[in-house]
Amino acid sequence: MNYPTKMGKNFQTLNKKKMKIKLFQNFSPASKEAWLEQAKKDLKGADFEQQLVTQSAEGFPIYPYYSSEDTVESQWVKAYDNRLNPPSDIPEASARHWVNAVEVTGVDESSINLEIKQVLDHGAEGIILSPSGTQEWDVVFDGIILPYISVWLKPEGDVRHILEGFSSWLKRQGKDKTAMRGGILWDPLHVGFEKPIEMAQQFELAKRIFHWFADYPHFKSLCLDGTVYHNAGATAVQEIGYGLAALVELWDGLTERGIDAQSLFSDLHILTAVGSDYFMEIAKLKTLRIAVQQLAALYQAAILPEDLPLFAMTSTWSKSEQEPHNNLLRNTTEAMAAIIGGCQAILVNPHNPYSSDAFSKRMARNISTILKEEAYFDKSLDPAAGSYYVESLIHTLYQESFALLKKIETEGGWAKLYLQRQIQREVKAVRNQRLLRLTQERIFPNEAVSNSLFEEEYQLKACSHFSMINPSA
Fold first, then answer.
1. pLDDT value at residue 13
2. Angle between the 236-255 and 388-410 helix axes, to the nearest 10 degrees?
3. Cys staple from 273: which of 12, 58, 230, 264, with CB 3.0 to 4.6 Å?
4. Is the dihedral of CA 77, 82, 87, 88 positive or negative?
């Protein structure tokens, strides 16, 4: 603001005087014990635990107040502060950077190419393609300079045929292999929650995919997909714990086939869904990064936390067919949590998930842009660093997730529990508990849990908790 000369001098003098005054010097610091005593007094005899302490879906208490006293055991978390992404190669770039990814759904190569150009012209920085057969990649990418965007493939159909074809096409281009960015959004083990799988075949296919794209350091071919748990109603602890157990299973299968652990972790990226439990989701992404880095250390593989790519997408579990405008708010909250939690790429799904209208797609694409260009989320590298609450959540999530991982390994490993349907039963049990809790807490006072979602024993289907609750007869 430009002030007249005299007013400007007075304003500057006043500011200097204020800087010398310690505004809080007359207030003595309050301990947590003092805060608790005052809170109990204000409750006038009501039970503190019942009134102010809530229970998370993960099963641990959430307190109304956190102080430095609550972070005594979680001091180790501070070593991961400001470790969300490596510095950008672009001079004077913002501290925080992520890719705004958009799913392209054209029916043929020409329409896909047109849609790619349209979304790139309107805020997208990366694209997700879902090839289902033989693709004419020259047509798909006609006029598009690949080094300037990120590309993710989510193959549907004959995965081997699709990815081998794409790999061959890339090699024929003769381009700089370090410039290709993106990855494969396909998890060879977690696909078993969609259709039956044979473990040895999945290991062999994962090995082939790894070798096809081994020369592309920034195009990650090995994916740990945690969305399958989240969107089926699982907790953050289950997503991390079961995800790590599946990663151990896959890594053991691949190292037995001659691939060293360092190469595997260097080619890994994580896909996760982010729900509306804001602080828990921030903590979940940070915990995922820490947990995978710690797991790599157990395999004697050295990776930096900031070099581990996290791809986040908004949740299906939290969305309602009847409330598309509320979904828009949920998408925004979830995108905020994903960015603060440390994602390197984000997909915001349309807020009207049951319609493919252009407006929903445009609004989804704009959320990331608005958070960057208008809310300045890219200016601070790690705004959650130092938060007593988030640190406490990370510490607890990490402890609980590794406890679940150890339990799984003690009982025979992920593959055994998957084949015995134990993982599926445990996730479905938590889903039912969460739905029951929604009705009991009067969020949906006149509604009841529906059994309309049909799943085979081996399956975990993505769903919405809204669609699982129907009006009572």
1. 53
2. 50
3. 230
4. positive
